[in-house]
Amino acid sequence: MKIRIQGNSIRIRLSKTEVDTLSAIGYIEEKTSFGNNAFYYCLQKKKGITELTAAYADDKITMSVPQSLLANWAENNIIGFDANMEISKDETLYLLLEKDFKCLDNVTEDQSDNFENPNKTC
Fold first, then answer.
1. Is-contact 30 68, C-beta < 8 A?
2. Most Cβ neighbours (<10 Å): which of 11, 20, 70, 103?
3. How far apart are CA 58 and CA 85, in angstroms?
4. Is residue 117 a part of any domain in this protein?
5. Range(s) of the domain holding residue 6
6. Tens digit of pLDDT for each residue in 10-55?
């Protein structure tokens, strides 16, 4: 699971295994350690909601994903889901959850569990 935070936006990308785990079990979590402290980010499947939502408490970002969006997500061509969550009258938080595709250029990270890039040419 990869996270990118920029201003009032949070983007999370998932490998094949992570999409499968989120769909089946309903929860995945990552941690970045800073010595005596840690930053956590997690995804949880949730019934009764229709859009992505997020909360931050106890050094953890929790993004809730509607259960209905995860049905067959691993098998279909839907890349991801997004939402603009209202924070206040004048402020929103943009949320994006998407499949992680293999890069088209050379990278050193292991991409064996990533989805095939739809822009790949053979």
1. no
2. 70
3. 20
4. no
5. 2-99
6. 999 998 899 999 999 999 999 999 999 999 999 999 999 999 999 9
